[in-house]
Write a structure and sequence with these properties.
alpha+beta, 3-stranded antiparallel sheet, 5 helices, globular, binds flavin mononucleotide
Length: 210
């Protein structure tokens, strides 16, 4: 079928995007509100922006039916917009997949998903929001930009500090994905593991990728 995007109902657009752009890595994002309430939520509209500086992005779809934006955006946006300008990206893994999914439950802004989902806040080194103690990789970020894209907001943050479990990385910073056990989101409540991988040997496929 050939489908002009603007003629599709919203639900079909969502299903076609999330059913085909798979698997999507999941950023479990911890933030803190300006008055100190901790927040955690998963985001699979998530990617690397660059490595000089190290920068990550995630997109918040919205606003919610009541007209307000998700707490993660409200907390992570720049202080000039009422946020703290900080967030932590924790990489979702099999080890805390169920707790990760529970953090997507909409809760009142004054209730912390750390308590609700049974996750442990661990002090970050540089930013105020804590990282997730159960996560083996966490990127502490400062917000650089919030870009308006129709009814979504793309948040771009610079990584200012990293926590990586020592057991995952060798002395050349190569990460053992088989121990990381990162998960990806498929459509709906289905997830993918990252243990079924293969290698393409031909070096000429990778000229100047860095
Ligand atoms: C695995 C997973 C990935 C998600 N990815 C996104 C996303 O990329 N963008 C988004 O707006 N919502 C996404 N959601 C929904 C939010 O996590 C959900 O709306 C959450 O309640 C927002 O929490 P907050 O208000 O505390 O920020 C995702 C949910 C799950 C379970």
């Amino acid at each position: 079928m050939h489908l002009p995007a603007h003629e599709l109902p919203i639900e079909a657009r969502y299903k076609l995007l999330t059913g085909t752009i798979i698997p999507r890595p999941v950023a479990v994002i911890s933030t803190i509100s300006p008055n100190g309430v901790l927040n955690v939520a998963p985001f699979s509209y998530f990617s690397i922006v660059g490595h000089a500086p190290m920068a990550l992005s995630f997109a918040v779809a919205g606003p919610k039916p009541d007209g307000t934006w998700k707490d993660t955006l409200r907390n992570a946006q720049l202080p000039t917009e009422g946020g703290t300008g900080e967030f932590v990206v924790n990489i979702a893994t099999e080890y805390y997949a169920k707790q990760m999914a529970r953090t997507a439950t909409p809760l009142a802004a004054d209730i912390s998903e750390f308590d609700f989902a049974g996750l442990t806040p661990a002090a970050s080194a540089v930013v105020r929001p804590p990282r997730i103690g159960e996560a083996s990789v966490s990127f502490e970020c400062r917000t650089l930009h919030v870009v308006e894209v129709g009814r979504s907001r793309l948040v771009v943050g610079e990584v200012v500090y990293l926590y990586v479990d020592d057991a995952l990385v060798d002395n050349r910073f190569r990460v053992d994905f088989s121990q990381l056990r990162a998960i990806g989101r498929m459509a709906g409540s289905r997830y993918a593991r990252t243990t079924d991988t293969f290698v393409i040997e031909d070096e000429k496929f990778f000229p100047g990728t860095r």
